[in-house]
Write a structure and sequence with these properties.
Layout: H1 13-16, H2 20-27, H3 33-49, H4 60-74, E1 81-82, E2 85-86, H5 93-105, H6 109-135, H7 137-148, H8 151-156, H9 162-180, H10 187-208, H11 211-227, H12 238-259, H13 263-277, H14 291-297, H15 305-313, H16 326-342, H17 356-369, H18 372-392, H19 406-437, H20 439-460, H21 462-469, H22 474-478, E3 487-490, H23 497-501, E4 506-508, H24 515-520, H25 529-538, E5 543-546, H26 548-555, E6 562-566, E7 571-574
Parallel strand pairs: 3-4, 3-5
Antiparallel strand pairs: 1-2, 5-7, 6-7
Helix pairs in contact: 4-5, 5-6, 6-7, 6-9, 6-17, 7-17, 7-20, 9-10, 10-11, 10-12, 11-16, 15-16, 15-17, 16-17, 18-19, 19-20
Length: 580
Protein backbone atom coordinates (compact mmCIF):
# COMPACT_ATOMS: atom_id res chain seq x y z
CA UNK A 1 0.00 0.00 0.00
CA UNK A 2 1.24 3.49 -0.85
CA UNK A 3 2.35 5.31 2.29
CA UNK A 4 3.60 8.75 3.20
CA UNK A 5 7.38 8.77 3.53
CA UNK A 6 7.14 10.23 7.04
CA UNK A 7 4.42 9.09 9.50
CA UNK A 8 2.09 11.86 10.65
CA UNK A 9 3.34 14.19 7.88
CA UNK A 10 0.75 16.86 7.14
CA UNK A 11 0.14 18.03 3.62
CA UNK A 12 2.89 20.46 2.73
CA UNK A 13 2.29 23.99 1.59
CA UNK A 14 3.94 23.19 -1.73
CA UNK A 15 1.60 20.26 -2.30
CA UNK A 16 -1.51 22.27 -1.63
CA UNK A 17 -0.45 25.01 -4.06
CA UNK A 18 -0.12 22.64 -7.02
CA UNK A 19 -2.82 22.35 -9.60
CA UNK A 20 -5.59 20.34 -7.91
CA UNK A 21 -5.64 17.51 -10.46
CA UNK A 22 -1.86 17.11 -10.47
CA UNK A 23 -1.75 17.14 -6.66
CA UNK A 24 -4.54 14.57 -6.55
CA UNK A 25 -2.69 12.22 -8.88
CA UNK A 26 0.41 12.28 -6.71
CA UNK A 27 -1.62 11.23 -3.66
CA UNK A 28 -4.40 9.00 -5.01
CA UNK A 29 -3.24 7.59 -8.32
CA UNK A 30 -5.64 4.66 -7.94
CA UNK A 31 -8.80 6.81 -7.56
CA UNK A 32 -9.76 9.09 -10.48
CA UNK A 33 -10.83 12.50 -9.24
CA UNK A 34 -14.09 12.28 -11.18
CA UNK A 35 -14.94 8.99 -9.48
CA UNK A 36 -14.32 10.48 -6.06
CA UNK A 37 -16.55 13.46 -6.87
CA UNK A 38 -19.28 11.08 -7.99
CA UNK A 39 -18.89 9.10 -4.76
CA UNK A 40 -19.19 12.23 -2.62
CA UNK A 41 -22.28 13.32 -4.53
CA UNK A 42 -23.86 9.89 -4.09
CA UNK A 43 -23.15 9.84 -0.36
CA UNK A 44 -24.61 13.32 0.17
CA UNK A 45 -27.68 12.44 -1.90
CA UNK A 46 -28.32 9.32 0.18
CA UNK A 47 -27.35 11.01 3.45
CA UNK A 48 -29.93 13.78 3.14
CA UNK A 49 -32.31 12.33 0.54
CA UNK A 50 -33.39 9.40 2.72
CA UNK A 51 -34.27 11.43 5.84
CA UNK A 52 -37.96 11.57 4.99
CA UNK A 53 -38.40 8.05 3.66
CA UNK A 54 -39.30 6.62 7.06
CA UNK A 55 -41.89 7.64 9.61
CA UNK A 56 -40.76 8.49 13.12
CA UNK A 57 -40.18 5.71 15.62
CA UNK A 58 -41.06 6.03 19.29
CA UNK A 59 -40.12 6.91 21.84
CA UNK A 60 -37.09 9.09 21.02
CA UNK A 61 -37.83 10.17 17.46
CA UNK A 62 -41.42 11.12 18.18
CA UNK A 63 -40.59 12.80 21.48
CA UNK A 64 -37.91 15.16 20.14
CA UNK A 65 -39.81 15.87 16.93
CA UNK A 66 -42.88 16.86 18.96
CA UNK A 67 -40.87 18.92 21.46
CA UNK A 68 -39.38 20.88 18.58
CA UNK A 69 -42.84 21.29 17.05
CA UNK A 70 -44.32 22.60 20.30
CA UNK A 71 -41.41 25.03 20.60
CA UNK A 72 -42.01 26.15 17.02
CA UNK A 73 -45.78 26.49 17.57
CA UNK A 74 -45.58 28.32 20.91
CA UNK A 75 -42.63 30.57 20.18
CA UNK A 76 -41.19 29.78 23.63
CA UNK A 77 -37.56 28.78 23.03
CA UNK A 78 -36.62 28.79 26.73
CA UNK A 79 -38.95 26.48 28.67
CA UNK A 80 -38.96 23.05 27.03
CA UNK A 81 -42.30 21.27 26.89
CA UNK A 82 -43.53 17.89 25.81
CA UNK A 83 -47.29 17.46 25.44
CA UNK A 84 -47.59 20.97 26.91
CA UNK A 85 -45.93 19.85 30.17
CA UNK A 86 -42.56 21.08 31.41
CA UNK A 87 -39.80 18.73 30.30
CA UNK A 88 -36.46 19.47 31.94
CA UNK A 89 -34.61 16.22 31.29
CA UNK A 90 -32.61 17.66 28.37
CA UNK A 91 -31.04 20.97 27.30
CA UNK A 92 -32.41 22.82 24.27
CA UNK A 93 -29.84 22.70 21.42
CA UNK A 94 -31.41 19.78 19.56
CA UNK A 95 -34.89 21.25 19.87
CA UNK A 96 -33.64 24.67 18.81
CA UNK A 97 -32.19 23.26 15.60
CA UNK A 98 -35.34 21.23 14.99
CA UNK A 99 -37.63 24.21 15.54
CA UNK A 100 -35.44 26.26 13.21
CA UNK A 101 -35.71 23.48 10.64
CA UNK A 102 -39.50 23.63 10.92
CA UNK A 103 -39.40 27.41 10.58
CA UNK A 104 -37.40 27.24 7.35
CA UNK A 105 -38.69 24.04 5.74
CA UNK A 106 -42.01 23.29 7.43
CA UNK A 107 -42.96 20.48 9.81
CA UNK A 108 -42.23 16.95 8.66
CA UNK A 109 -40.21 13.76 9.13
CA UNK A 110 -37.03 14.81 7.33
CA UNK A 111 -37.08 18.23 8.96
CA UNK A 112 -37.21 16.51 12.36
CA UNK A 113 -34.13 14.42 11.46
CA UNK A 114 -32.14 17.24 9.90
CA UNK A 115 -30.37 18.04 13.18
CA UNK A 116 -28.89 14.56 13.55
CA UNK A 117 -27.96 14.34 9.87
CA UNK A 118 -26.05 17.61 10.11
CA UNK A 119 -24.46 16.51 13.40
CA UNK A 120 -23.26 13.23 11.91
CA UNK A 121 -21.84 14.94 8.84
CA UNK A 122 -20.24 17.64 11.00
CA UNK A 123 -18.51 15.01 13.12
CA UNK A 124 -17.25 13.20 10.04
CA UNK A 125 -15.87 16.40 8.50
CA UNK A 126 -14.29 17.57 11.77
CA UNK A 127 -12.34 14.33 12.19
CA UNK A 128 -11.36 14.37 8.51
CA UNK A 129 -9.90 17.86 8.98
CA UNK A 130 -7.93 16.80 12.07
CA UNK A 131 -6.65 13.66 10.33
CA UNK A 132 -5.54 15.71 7.34
CA UNK A 133 -3.60 18.09 9.57
CA UNK A 134 -1.78 15.40 11.52
CA UNK A 135 -1.57 12.37 9.25
CA UNK A 136 -1.88 13.64 5.69
CA UNK A 137 -4.58 13.71 2.99
CA UNK A 138 -4.77 9.97 2.38
CA UNK A 139 -5.35 9.21 6.07
CA UNK A 140 -7.98 11.98 6.09
CA UNK A 141 -9.88 10.36 3.22
CA UNK A 142 -9.69 6.97 4.92
CA UNK A 143 -10.90 8.47 8.21
CA UNK A 144 -13.97 9.83 6.45
CA UNK A 145 -14.61 6.46 4.82
CA UNK A 146 -14.13 4.62 8.12
CA UNK A 147 -16.80 6.73 9.84
CA UNK A 148 -19.12 6.58 6.84
CA UNK A 149 -19.10 2.78 6.83
CA UNK A 150 -19.41 2.40 10.61
CA UNK A 151 -23.05 1.31 10.97
CA UNK A 152 -23.40 2.82 14.43
CA UNK A 153 -22.43 6.26 13.11
CA UNK A 154 -24.32 6.23 9.81
CA UNK A 155 -27.52 4.81 11.34
CA UNK A 156 -27.48 7.18 14.31
CA UNK A 157 -27.06 10.10 11.89
CA UNK A 158 -30.51 9.23 10.54
CA UNK A 159 -32.27 8.52 13.84
CA UNK A 160 -33.68 11.47 15.72
CA UNK A 161 -32.01 11.39 19.14
CA UNK A 162 -29.95 13.76 21.23
CA UNK A 163 -27.04 11.30 21.35
CA UNK A 164 -25.94 12.11 17.80
CA UNK A 165 -26.23 15.84 18.45
CA UNK A 166 -23.92 15.37 21.43
CA UNK A 167 -21.56 13.19 19.40
CA UNK A 168 -21.37 15.79 16.63
CA UNK A 169 -20.50 18.62 19.00
CA UNK A 170 -18.04 16.40 20.90
CA UNK A 171 -16.33 15.57 17.60
CA UNK A 172 -15.71 19.28 17.15
CA UNK A 173 -14.24 19.46 20.66
CA UNK A 174 -11.75 16.69 19.84
CA UNK A 175 -10.96 17.97 16.35
CA UNK A 176 -10.35 21.54 17.51
CA UNK A 177 -8.12 20.26 20.31
CA UNK A 178 -6.05 18.26 17.81
CA UNK A 179 -5.81 21.19 15.41
CA UNK A 180 -4.67 23.52 18.20
CA UNK A 181 -1.91 21.19 19.38
CA UNK A 182 -0.18 20.71 16.02
CA UNK A 183 3.50 21.78 16.31
CA UNK A 184 3.28 23.94 13.19
CA UNK A 185 0.30 25.92 14.48
CA UNK A 186 1.06 29.57 15.12
CA UNK A 187 0.26 31.15 18.44
CA UNK A 188 -2.78 32.90 16.98
CA UNK A 189 -3.99 29.72 15.24
CA UNK A 190 -3.61 27.69 18.44
CA UNK A 191 -5.54 30.32 20.35
CA UNK A 192 -8.29 30.40 17.74
CA UNK A 193 -8.67 26.63 17.63
CA UNK A 194 -8.81 26.41 21.43
CA UNK A 195 -11.48 29.12 21.59
CA UNK A 196 -13.43 27.08 19.04
CA UNK A 197 -12.86 24.01 21.23
CA UNK A 198 -14.31 25.77 24.29
CA UNK A 199 -17.27 26.99 22.24
CA UNK A 200 -17.88 23.43 21.02
CA UNK A 201 -17.86 22.25 24.65
CA UNK A 202 -20.52 24.84 25.38
CA UNK A 203 -22.58 23.50 22.49
CA UNK A 204 -22.10 19.96 23.85
CA UNK A 205 -23.46 21.11 27.22
CA UNK A 206 -26.50 22.56 25.48
CA UNK A 207 -26.88 19.29 23.58
CA UNK A 208 -26.88 16.80 26.47
CA UNK A 209 -25.82 18.46 29.71
CA UNK A 210 -22.70 18.43 31.85
CA UNK A 211 -21.20 15.44 30.04
CA UNK A 212 -20.17 18.03 27.45
CA UNK A 213 -17.58 19.24 29.99
CA UNK A 214 -17.10 16.12 32.08
CA UNK A 215 -16.04 13.82 29.24
CA UNK A 216 -13.39 16.12 27.67
CA UNK A 217 -12.12 16.88 31.18
CA UNK A 218 -11.84 13.19 31.98
CA UNK A 219 -9.99 12.58 28.72
CA UNK A 220 -7.49 15.36 29.47
CA UNK A 221 -6.83 14.03 32.95
CA UNK A 222 -6.25 10.48 31.72
CA UNK A 223 -4.12 11.65 28.79
CA UNK A 224 -1.83 13.85 30.90
CA UNK A 225 -1.42 11.05 33.42
CA UNK A 226 -0.57 8.62 30.62
CA UNK A 227 2.13 10.87 29.11
CA UNK A 228 3.23 12.13 32.54
CA UNK A 229 3.27 15.72 31.44
CA UNK A 230 0.91 18.53 32.37
CA UNK A 231 2.14 20.94 29.72
CA UNK A 232 -1.00 20.47 27.68
CA UNK A 233 -3.06 22.24 30.34
CA UNK A 234 -1.02 25.41 29.81
CA UNK A 235 -1.98 25.45 26.12
CA UNK A 236 -5.75 25.32 26.67
CA UNK A 237 -6.18 29.12 26.90
CA UNK A 238 -8.75 28.89 29.72
CA UNK A 239 -8.73 32.63 30.37
CA UNK A 240 -10.21 33.12 26.91
CA UNK A 241 -11.99 29.81 26.49
CA UNK A 242 -13.95 29.60 29.73
CA UNK A 243 -15.69 32.96 29.16
CA UNK A 244 -16.57 31.81 25.64
CA UNK A 245 -18.05 28.56 26.95
CA UNK A 246 -19.99 30.43 29.62
CA UNK A 247 -21.26 32.89 27.02
CA UNK A 248 -22.63 29.92 25.06
CA UNK A 249 -24.25 28.14 27.99
CA UNK A 250 -25.14 30.56 30.79
CA UNK A 251 -27.84 32.66 29.06
CA UNK A 252 -30.23 29.73 28.60
CA UNK A 253 -29.55 28.26 32.04
CA UNK A 254 -30.12 31.67 33.62
CA UNK A 255 -33.33 32.30 31.70
CA UNK A 256 -34.92 28.91 32.34
CA UNK A 257 -33.95 29.00 36.04
CA UNK A 258 -35.45 32.47 36.42
CA UNK A 259 -38.71 31.36 34.83
CA UNK A 260 -38.76 27.91 36.47
CA UNK A 261 -37.18 27.80 39.97
CA UNK A 262 -37.62 24.03 40.10
CA UNK A 263 -35.38 23.51 37.07
CA UNK A 264 -31.93 23.52 38.68
CA UNK A 265 -32.50 20.73 41.20
CA UNK A 266 -34.26 18.46 38.73
CA UNK A 267 -31.76 18.99 35.92
CA UNK A 268 -28.47 18.90 37.81
CA UNK A 269 -29.28 16.48 40.65
CA UNK A 270 -31.94 14.16 39.28
CA UNK A 271 -30.93 14.09 35.63
CA UNK A 272 -27.16 14.02 36.16
CA UNK A 273 -26.07 12.67 39.52
CA UNK A 274 -28.95 10.27 40.18
CA UNK A 275 -29.09 9.11 36.55
CA UNK A 276 -25.39 8.20 36.58
CA UNK A 277 -25.12 6.73 40.08
CA UNK A 278 -28.39 4.79 40.25
CA UNK A 279 -30.93 2.89 38.18
CA UNK A 280 -33.65 5.49 38.80
CA UNK A 281 -34.52 5.49 35.09
CA UNK A 282 -34.64 1.68 34.85
CA UNK A 283 -32.00 1.66 32.11
CA UNK A 284 -29.43 -0.53 33.78
CA UNK A 285 -27.19 -3.01 32.04
CA UNK A 286 -24.18 -5.23 32.74
CA UNK A 287 -20.65 -3.84 32.75
CA UNK A 288 -20.08 -5.28 29.26
CA UNK A 289 -23.28 -3.66 27.88
CA UNK A 290 -21.43 -1.55 25.30
CA UNK A 291 -18.97 -4.24 24.13
CA UNK A 292 -21.26 -5.81 21.49
CA UNK A 293 -22.35 -2.34 20.39
CA UNK A 294 -18.72 -1.31 19.93
CA UNK A 295 -17.95 -4.46 17.95
CA UNK A 296 -21.06 -4.12 15.79
CA UNK A 297 -20.43 -0.42 15.28
CA UNK A 298 -16.93 -1.11 13.95
CA UNK A 299 -17.87 -4.31 12.13
CA UNK A 300 -16.46 -3.26 8.72
CA UNK A 301 -13.04 -2.53 10.27
CA UNK A 302 -12.53 -5.29 12.83
CA UNK A 303 -9.23 -6.49 11.35
CA UNK A 304 -7.78 -3.02 11.89
CA UNK A 305 -8.01 -3.27 15.69
CA UNK A 306 -4.32 -4.24 16.18
CA UNK A 307 -3.23 -1.43 13.87
CA UNK A 308 -5.42 1.06 15.73
CA UNK A 309 -3.84 -0.06 19.00
CA UNK A 310 -0.33 0.33 17.58
CA UNK A 311 -1.13 3.78 16.19
CA UNK A 312 -2.37 4.96 19.57
CA UNK A 313 0.78 3.69 21.26
CA UNK A 314 3.32 5.23 18.89
CA UNK A 315 5.60 8.04 20.08
CA UNK A 316 4.85 11.65 19.26
CA UNK A 317 5.57 12.76 15.69
CA UNK A 318 7.83 15.54 17.00
CA UNK A 319 10.68 15.00 19.42
CA UNK A 320 10.96 16.41 22.89
CA UNK A 321 9.38 16.08 26.28
CA UNK A 322 5.71 16.98 26.30
CA UNK A 323 5.32 16.50 22.55
CA UNK A 324 1.66 16.02 21.73
CA UNK A 325 0.49 12.54 20.67
CA UNK A 326 -2.71 12.90 18.60
CA UNK A 327 -3.34 9.18 18.11
CA UNK A 328 -2.94 8.52 21.83
CA UNK A 329 -5.37 11.38 22.54
CA UNK A 330 -7.89 9.74 20.19
CA UNK A 331 -7.36 6.37 21.88
CA UNK A 332 -7.79 7.83 25.36
CA UNK A 333 -10.88 9.70 24.17
CA UNK A 334 -12.57 6.50 22.97
CA UNK A 335 -11.49 4.42 25.98
CA UNK A 336 -12.47 7.02 28.59
CA UNK A 337 -15.94 7.48 27.12
CA UNK A 338 -16.43 3.72 26.87
CA UNK A 339 -15.43 3.16 30.51
CA UNK A 340 -17.36 6.18 31.80
CA UNK A 341 -20.67 4.96 30.42
CA UNK A 342 -19.94 1.31 31.19
CA UNK A 343 -19.75 2.26 34.87
CA UNK A 344 -22.97 4.28 34.73
CA UNK A 345 -26.18 3.03 36.31
CA UNK A 346 -28.07 4.24 33.22
CA UNK A 347 -27.25 2.73 29.84
CA UNK A 348 -28.71 3.19 26.36
CA UNK A 349 -27.08 2.24 23.03
CA UNK A 350 -26.59 5.82 21.87
CA UNK A 351 -24.49 6.78 24.89
CA UNK A 352 -21.38 5.28 23.27
CA UNK A 353 -21.64 7.38 20.09
CA UNK A 354 -19.12 10.11 21.10
CA UNK A 355 -16.37 7.45 21.09
CA UNK A 356 -16.77 6.67 17.39
CA UNK A 357 -15.17 9.79 15.84
CA UNK A 358 -11.93 9.03 17.68
CA UNK A 359 -12.14 5.37 16.63
CA UNK A 360 -12.78 6.51 13.07
CA UNK A 361 -9.59 8.57 13.12
CA UNK A 362 -7.57 5.62 14.46
CA UNK A 363 -9.12 3.37 11.81
CA UNK A 364 -8.14 5.88 9.12
CA UNK A 365 -4.53 5.92 10.34
CA UNK A 366 -4.45 2.13 10.53
CA UNK A 367 -5.88 1.86 7.00
CA UNK A 368 -3.26 4.30 5.71
CA UNK A 369 -0.49 2.06 7.00
CA UNK A 370 -2.09 -1.34 6.41
CA UNK A 371 -0.46 -3.84 4.07
CA UNK A 372 -2.46 -5.19 1.15
CA UNK A 373 -2.59 -8.62 2.80
CA UNK A 374 -4.37 -7.16 5.84
CA UNK A 375 -6.92 -5.47 3.62
CA UNK A 376 -7.58 -8.77 1.85
CA UNK A 377 -8.17 -10.35 5.25
CA UNK A 378 -10.70 -7.65 6.14
CA UNK A 379 -12.55 -8.26 2.87
CA UNK A 380 -12.72 -11.97 3.63
CA UNK A 381 -13.99 -11.37 7.19
CA UNK A 382 -16.64 -8.92 6.06
CA UNK A 383 -17.63 -11.20 3.21
CA UNK A 384 -18.23 -14.03 5.67
CA UNK A 385 -20.24 -11.75 7.97
CA UNK A 386 -22.36 -10.46 5.09
CA UNK A 387 -22.99 -13.95 3.73
CA UNK A 388 -23.95 -15.23 7.19
CA UNK A 389 -26.34 -12.29 7.56
CA UNK A 390 -27.89 -13.05 4.17
CA UNK A 391 -28.42 -16.72 5.06
CA UNK A 392 -29.80 -15.87 8.51
CA UNK A 393 -32.15 -13.10 7.36
CA UNK A 394 -35.22 -15.43 7.14
CA UNK A 395 -34.98 -15.89 10.90
CA UNK A 396 -36.07 -12.27 11.35
CA UNK A 397 -39.43 -13.18 9.87
CA UNK A 398 -40.05 -15.50 12.82
CA UNK A 399 -39.66 -12.80 15.47
CA UNK A 400 -42.58 -11.66 17.60
CA UNK A 401 -40.91 -9.15 19.90
CA UNK A 402 -42.15 -5.94 21.56
CA UNK A 403 -45.77 -6.87 20.75
CA UNK A 404 -45.04 -6.27 17.04
CA UNK A 405 -47.00 -8.61 14.73
CA UNK A 406 -44.80 -11.25 13.15
CA UNK A 407 -46.03 -10.38 9.64
CA UNK A 408 -44.22 -7.03 9.91
CA UNK A 409 -40.99 -8.83 10.70
CA UNK A 410 -41.57 -11.16 7.76
CA UNK A 411 -41.62 -8.21 5.37
CA UNK A 412 -38.61 -6.61 7.05
CA UNK A 413 -36.65 -9.84 6.61
CA UNK A 414 -36.69 -9.23 2.85
CA UNK A 415 -35.10 -5.83 3.32
CA UNK A 416 -32.42 -7.30 5.56
CA UNK A 417 -31.72 -9.95 2.93
CA UNK A 418 -31.44 -7.23 0.29
CA UNK A 419 -29.05 -5.24 2.49
CA UNK A 420 -26.77 -8.20 3.20
CA UNK A 421 -26.93 -9.30 -0.42
CA UNK A 422 -25.73 -5.84 -1.43
CA UNK A 423 -22.91 -6.10 1.08
CA UNK A 424 -21.80 -9.44 -0.37
CA UNK A 425 -21.75 -7.82 -3.82
CA UNK A 426 -19.82 -4.84 -2.41
CA UNK A 427 -17.12 -7.07 -0.95
CA UNK A 428 -16.81 -8.92 -4.25
CA UNK A 429 -16.49 -5.65 -6.17
CA UNK A 430 -13.92 -4.31 -3.70
CA UNK A 431 -11.89 -7.52 -4.15
CA UNK A 432 -11.98 -7.11 -7.92
CA UNK A 433 -10.98 -3.45 -7.72
CA UNK A 434 -8.10 -4.28 -5.38
CA UNK A 435 -6.43 -6.35 -8.09
CA UNK A 436 -7.03 -3.86 -10.91
CA UNK A 437 -7.09 -0.36 -9.40
CA UNK A 438 -5.33 -0.55 -6.07
CA UNK A 439 -6.05 -0.48 -2.38
CA UNK A 440 -7.50 3.01 -2.01
CA UNK A 441 -10.09 2.48 -4.74
CA UNK A 442 -11.02 -0.83 -3.13
CA UNK A 443 -11.45 0.75 0.31
CA UNK A 444 -13.53 3.64 -1.07
CA UNK A 445 -15.87 1.30 -2.93
CA UNK A 446 -16.13 -0.99 0.08
CA UNK A 447 -17.01 1.89 2.45
CA UNK A 448 -19.59 3.50 0.19
CA UNK A 449 -21.15 0.14 -0.67
CA UNK A 450 -21.50 -0.85 3.00
CA UNK A 451 -22.94 2.57 3.82
CA UNK A 452 -25.58 1.98 1.14
CA UNK A 453 -26.27 -1.50 2.53
CA UNK A 454 -26.78 -0.23 6.07
CA UNK A 455 -29.04 2.49 4.67
CA UNK A 456 -31.18 -0.12 2.92
CA UNK A 457 -31.59 -2.02 6.20
CA UNK A 458 -32.55 1.20 7.98
CA UNK A 459 -35.05 2.21 5.30
CA UNK A 460 -36.60 -1.24 5.39
CA UNK A 461 -37.46 -0.79 9.04
CA UNK A 462 -40.32 1.39 7.80
CA UNK A 463 -42.23 -1.89 7.41
CA UNK A 464 -42.30 -2.00 11.23
CA UNK A 465 -41.86 1.63 12.23
CA UNK A 466 -44.43 3.01 9.80
CA UNK A 467 -47.43 1.11 11.18
CA UNK A 468 -46.23 1.77 14.74
CA UNK A 469 -46.03 5.53 14.15
CA UNK A 470 -49.75 6.08 13.71
CA UNK A 471 -49.20 8.18 10.59
CA UNK A 472 -51.59 5.99 8.64
CA UNK A 473 -54.53 6.70 10.98
CA UNK A 474 -53.71 10.38 11.59
CA UNK A 475 -55.75 11.66 8.59
CA UNK A 476 -58.92 9.96 9.86
CA UNK A 477 -58.38 11.35 13.36
CA UNK A 478 -57.68 14.83 11.99
CA UNK A 479 -61.16 14.91 10.44
CA UNK A 480 -62.66 14.84 13.95
CA UNK A 481 -59.97 16.50 16.07
CA UNK A 482 -60.20 20.29 16.03
CA UNK A 483 -57.81 22.96 17.38
CA UNK A 484 -58.44 23.43 21.10
CA UNK A 485 -60.21 20.07 21.43
CA UNK A 486 -58.60 17.82 24.09
CA UNK A 487 -56.68 14.77 22.83
CA UNK A 488 -56.47 12.38 25.77
CA UNK A 489 -53.83 9.70 26.12
CA UNK A 490 -55.68 7.23 28.32
CA UNK A 491 -53.24 5.15 30.36
CA UNK A 492 -50.69 5.57 27.58
CA UNK A 493 -48.10 8.06 26.36
CA UNK A 494 -48.12 7.81 22.59
CA UNK A 495 -44.82 9.28 21.36
CA UNK A 496 -45.55 9.56 17.63
CA UNK A 497 -49.26 10.12 16.94
CA UNK A 498 -49.32 13.63 18.52
CA UNK A 499 -46.63 14.74 16.07
CA UNK A 500 -48.58 13.53 13.04
CA UNK A 501 -51.76 15.13 14.43
CA UNK A 502 -49.88 18.36 15.28
CA UNK A 503 -51.71 18.18 18.61
CA UNK A 504 -50.30 17.40 22.11
CA UNK A 505 -51.77 14.80 24.44
CA UNK A 506 -53.48 15.30 27.77
CA UNK A 507 -52.29 12.37 29.87
CA UNK A 508 -54.78 10.28 31.79
CA UNK A 509 -53.99 7.94 34.72
CA UNK A 510 -50.40 7.25 33.64
CA UNK A 511 -47.79 10.03 33.72
CA UNK A 512 -44.96 7.84 32.41
CA UNK A 513 -41.79 9.90 31.86
CA UNK A 514 -43.75 13.12 32.32
CA UNK A 515 -44.24 12.61 36.04
CA UNK A 516 -42.17 15.70 36.86
CA UNK A 517 -44.26 17.82 34.48
CA UNK A 518 -47.52 16.59 35.96
CA UNK A 519 -46.25 17.41 39.45
CA UNK A 520 -45.39 20.95 38.41
CA UNK A 521 -48.63 21.53 36.47
CA UNK A 522 -51.20 19.10 37.90
CA UNK A 523 -54.07 20.90 36.16
CA UNK A 524 -52.76 19.75 32.79
CA UNK A 525 -53.44 16.06 33.26
CA UNK A 526 -56.09 13.72 34.68
CA UNK A 527 -54.72 11.43 37.41
CA UNK A 528 -57.31 8.61 37.40
CA UNK A 529 -59.88 6.93 35.20
CA UNK A 530 -62.86 7.90 37.35
CA UNK A 531 -62.12 11.59 36.87
CA UNK A 532 -61.57 10.98 33.18
CA UNK A 533 -64.94 9.22 32.86
CA UNK A 534 -66.68 12.25 34.34
CA UNK A 535 -64.77 14.74 32.12
CA UNK A 536 -65.31 12.56 29.06
CA UNK A 537 -69.08 12.51 29.56
CA UNK A 538 -69.59 16.12 30.64
CA UNK A 539 -66.57 18.09 29.47
CA UNK A 540 -67.40 18.75 25.86
CA UNK A 541 -66.14 17.27 22.57
CA UNK A 542 -62.89 15.37 22.85
CA UNK A 543 -60.79 12.63 21.28
CA UNK A 544 -58.88 9.90 23.12
CA UNK A 545 -56.17 7.44 22.14
CA UNK A 546 -55.68 4.22 24.09
CA UNK A 547 -54.49 0.65 23.77
CA UNK A 548 -56.98 -2.04 22.62
CA UNK A 549 -56.86 -3.47 26.16
CA UNK A 550 -57.81 -0.12 27.71
CA UNK A 551 -60.55 0.32 25.13
CA UNK A 552 -62.09 -3.01 26.15
CA UNK A 553 -61.92 -2.06 29.83
CA UNK A 554 -63.57 1.32 29.25
CA UNK A 555 -66.21 -0.21 27.03
CA UNK A 556 -67.45 -2.14 30.03
CA UNK A 557 -68.11 1.19 31.77
CA UNK A 558 -70.49 2.07 28.92
CA UNK A 559 -68.75 5.34 28.20
CA UNK A 560 -69.80 7.03 24.96
CA UNK A 561 -66.95 6.04 22.62
CA UNK A 562 -67.30 6.34 18.88
CA UNK A 563 -64.37 4.69 17.15
CA UNK A 564 -62.53 6.94 14.69
CA UNK A 565 -59.53 4.82 13.78
CA UNK A 566 -57.66 1.74 14.89
CA UNK A 567 -54.39 -0.03 14.23
CA UNK A 568 -52.57 -2.92 15.87
CA UNK A 569 -51.39 -0.90 18.87
CA UNK A 570 -53.97 1.85 19.46
CA UNK A 571 -57.66 2.72 19.25
CA UNK A 572 -58.79 6.34 18.76
CA UNK A 573 -62.30 7.32 19.84
CA UNK A 574 -64.42 10.42 20.29
CA UNK A 575 -67.34 11.29 22.57
CA UNK A 576 -69.16 13.09 19.76
CA UNK A 577 -71.80 10.97 17.98
CA UNK A 578 -71.23 10.77 14.25
CA UNK A 579 -73.77 12.44 12.05
CA UNK A 580 -75.91 9.99 10.05
Amino acid sequence: MQQDPIPYAPASVAATTRAPVAWWRTRYADIPLAWLAAGVALVLLVWFGTLGLRHLIGPDEGRYAEMGREMFASGDWVTLRYNALKYFEKPPLHMWVTALSYTVFGVGDWQARLCVALSGLLGLLAMTLAAHRWFGPRAALLTALALLASPMWSAASHFNTLDMTLAGTMSCVLACMLMAQHPDASASARRGWMIACWAAMGAAVLAKGLVGIALPGLVLVVYTLAVRDAGLWRRLHPTLGVPVMLAVTVPWFALISARNPEFAHFFFIHEHWQRYTSTVHARSGPIWYFVPLLVAGLMPWLCLAPGMWRAAGEPAPQAGKGAFRPALMAGVWAAAIFIFFSLSGSKLPGYILPAFPALGLLAGVALDRAAERLWRRQLVVMGVIALAGLLASPLIGRLHANHIPSEFYAVYARWVALAFGGMVATVALAWWLLRRHGVTASIATYAIGLFLGFTVALLGYETIGGPASGASIAPAVSQVLRPGMPLYGVDTLDHTLPFYLRHPLVLVAHADELEFGTQQEPDKWIPDLDTFADVWQHGGPAVAVMSPETWRDLSQRRLPMVEIARDWRRVVVTNVPRQP
